[in-house]
């Protein structure tokens, strides 16, 4: 009897353990990942070239002998799941496979992950189209596919992504036009479509009242500026074929950074733009502007630090009033048609606070204000290719001046 006791006890314990396990299994089973979500994860992994899945990368940890949401953390790095309160299935909410160097395609099956809020495949080597099924992911708040080789146009029904806050498709090979329906994205704060092959006009995006950053630079967009979102802080439209006047920019009172460089804009760089209260970087270089309205600025509230207007058709005298912009550190007015003398007031700004001053490739005449020849003043820049008396001993004069024949008549003015 006494010898039997332990084994009976053991048997009882065993039975209890088994009973516990048996009661637990259905519970676990019911919190497992929804079957169709698992299918999608499989499809995602299968459309990546296995050679590009290194042993340290997230996709390598996707082991389908285990359940994705249950083994998340150990396996299935780069995903997050819902934790259901009831006994329903877990759903995938986040996929973040940023910067692992994956080569391959994005499977259309991704459209079945209907609880997905974040899809981040930035900085890989995905190629082929962005599947149109992406527009079924109506809970997405972030769609980040920047720095890949995605091609083709935007998914036709992308406007269905009503919750989207960040849409970054920069640095791909996307083409086609930018659809006006994007202005229905009422939660959008960042729209990055730069460095693609988008063409056509910029649609009216004024409805994007939460939009903070609009980067459409380095595409093939043409036409005039449309009405732009009122609350923009960063507007980057450089390296396109945009034309017309820019006076509508003056209404963007929260603007901090404005880059319209390398387009075909013309007319005036209005004083209302130069004095936008928050503006700190203004780059309108390489355009066809003919005037820049620099009004005297007595209020010290101007934030403007960087002013780059080089390579335009600005003419007349250099604006003396520029010295009233107390925060300026970088001034580039090179490659224009400025004539006359360098205002003596510019000398007082050298080194404090002007640290970069480019007046090169104009038709400036005469001698230099005395501070320019003071070697103790630390400044980077150039006075080359003007009609100045510019001593070779002065660093800023390196590069030489125009030939006398070019200087006759002060540059044709
Ligand atoms: C996605 O859903 C559709 C329709 O429900 C289904 O036919 C298809 O097989 C699903 N794809 C995957 C990979 O689960
Ligand atoms: C769990 O799901 C079953 C059906 O699948 C249902 O009958 C049961 O009420 C659910 N239990 C809870 C706690 O939600
Ligand atoms: C997604 O990608 C960006 C870079 O594009 C990265 O900075 C970010 O941390 C990633 N993850 C999430 C969840 O946004
Ligand atoms: C302004 O834009 C031009 C052309 O895109 C670029 O070369 C230049 O570096 C920019 N200027 C500043 C100060 O960033």
TrEMBL record:
SMART domains the UniProt entry points to: LRR_TYP
Biological processes per GO annotation: defense response; response to other organism
InterPro entries per the UniProt record, alphabetical: Leu-rich_rpt (IPR001611), Leu-rich_rpt_typical-subtyp (IPR003591), LRR_dom_sf (IPR032675), LRR_N_plant-typ (IPR013210), RLP29 (IPR053213)
Pfam families on file: LRR_1 (PF00560), LRRNT_2 (PF08263)
Alphabetic keyword roster: Leucine-rich repeat, Membrane, Repeat, Signal, Transmembrane, Transmembrane helix
Ranges for domain Leucine-rich repeat-containing N-terminal plant-type: 35-82
Keyword presence, Transmembrane: yes
Transmembrane stretches, start-end: 7-29
Keyword flag Transmembrane helix: yes
Protein localization: Membrane
Cellular component terms (Gene Ontology): membrane
Matching PANTHER family: LEUCINE-RICH REPEAT (LRR) FAMILY PROTEIN
Protein name (Swiss-Prot/TrEMBL): Leucine-rich repeat-containing N-terminal plant-type domain-containing protein
Organism of this sequence: Escallonia rubra
């Amino acid at each position: 009897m006494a010898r039997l006791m332990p084994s009976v006890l053991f048997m009882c314990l065993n039975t209890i353990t088994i009973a516990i396990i048996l009661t637990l299994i259905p519970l676990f089973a019911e919190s497992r990942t929804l079957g169709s979500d698992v299918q999608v994860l499989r499809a995602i992994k299968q459309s990546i070239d296995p050679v590009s899945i290194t042993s340290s990368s997230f996709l390598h940890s996707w082991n389908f002998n285990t359940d994705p949401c249950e083994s998340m953390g150990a396996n299935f790095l780069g995903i997050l799941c819902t934790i259901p309160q009831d006994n329903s299935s877990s759903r995938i909410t986040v996929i973040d496979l940023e910067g692992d160097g994956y080569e391959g395609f994005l499977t259309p099956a991704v459209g079945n992950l209907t609880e997905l809020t974040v899809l981040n495949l930035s900085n890989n080597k995905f190629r082929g189209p962005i599947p149109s099924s992406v527009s079924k992911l109506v809970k997405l708040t972030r769609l980040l596919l920047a720095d890949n080789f995605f091609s083709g146009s935007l998914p036709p029904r992308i406007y269905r992504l009503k919750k989207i806050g960040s849409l970054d498709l920069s640095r791909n090979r996307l083409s086609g036009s930018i659809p006006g329906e994007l202005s229905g994205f009422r939660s959008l704060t960042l729209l990055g479509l730069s460095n693609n092959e988008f063409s056509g006009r910029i649609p009216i995006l004024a409805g994007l009242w939460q939009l903070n950053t609009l980067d459409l630079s380095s595409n093939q967009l043409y036409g005039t500026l449309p009405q732009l979102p009122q609350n923009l802080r960063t507007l980057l439209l450089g390296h396109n074929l945009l034309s017309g006047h820019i006076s509508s920019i003056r209404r963007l009172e929260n603007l901090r950074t404005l880059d319209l460089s390398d387009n075909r804009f013309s007319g005036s760089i209005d004083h209302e733009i130069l004095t936008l209260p928050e503006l700190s970087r203004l780059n309108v270089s390489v355009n066809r502007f003919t005037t820049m309205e620099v009004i005297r600025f007595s209020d010290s509230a101007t934030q403007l630090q960087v002013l780059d207007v080089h390579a335009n058709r600005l003419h007349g005298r250099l604006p003396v009033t520029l010295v009233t912009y107390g925060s300026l550190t970088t001034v580039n007015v090179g490659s224009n048609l400025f004539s006359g003398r360098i205002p003596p007031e510019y000398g007082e700004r050298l080194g404090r606070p002007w640290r970069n001053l480019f007046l090169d490739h104009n038709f400036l005449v005469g001698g230099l204000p005395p501070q320019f020849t003071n070697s103790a003043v630390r400044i980077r820049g150039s006075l080359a290719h003007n009609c100045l008396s510019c001593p070779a001993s002065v660093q800023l004069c390196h590069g030489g001046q125009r030939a006398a024949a070019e200087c006759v008549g002060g540059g044709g003015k």
